[in-house]
Amino acid sequence: MANTMRWRYGETNPVMLPVDSATVIEIGDLVYLDVDDAKPASSQTDQGTELANQQFFHDLFAGVAMQASRSGDTQPIRVASTGVFEFDCLSTTLEVGDMLSSDENAGGTALLNQTVAKVTNINAAIGRCAKRLNPAGTRVLVDVVGTVLRGGPQAIL
After folding, report:
1. What are the φ and ψ backbone dihedral angles of 63, each rounded to 5 degrees?
2. Domains in the chain with CATH codes
3. Element (H or E) spanning 82, and its range?
4. What percent of the chain lies above the pLDDT cut of 70?
5. Taking the CA of residue 109 as centre, how many other CA atoms within 13 Å lie in the half-sphere pointing to its CB?
6. Residue-wise pLDDT tens digits, 74-108
7. Bridging pattern class, strands 99-104 and 37-40
8. What is the pTM of this model?
9. What is the distance between the alpha carbons of residues 104 and 152, in angstroms, rounded to a whole number?
10. How many Cβ atoms are within 10 Å of 58's Cβ, its own excluded?
11. C-beta atoms surrounding 131 within 10 Å
């Protein structure tokens, strides 16, 4: 997927994160913190099920890449830990507040870097729907909250 600036509005509360020289990150990728380096969602080790992958990703979710890192690059990149971003999704309807996470690939072996899906488990969520999607659509506004710096989405009491 090409570099796509997905930020639409809101405070991004950016953080600069290091990237290993062999890791490729594109603008708009959902990224997590692997020990001390940013990596795109698809780099995560398969946990066996979509929910397990989403929960593991949630726990390490840093935010959305605002800068790219090509193979061989060693400079840190800017990652937005909050903000409203527009992501692709499978055709669906969503209500404001619905929880979203990175979607899984068709093979069921890895998460996608720039596609989200509705989840029902707060421990899998990386954000919430920020604009009602009805009738069904394939692009959704997501109010992203990084877990590493911001504690991730919280349960509604």
Report:
1. 150, -150
2. 7-149 (2.40.300)
3. strand 82-94
4. 99
5. 1
6. 899 999 999 999 999 999 999 999 999 999 999 99
7. unpaired
8. 0.94
9. 20
10. 22
11. 16
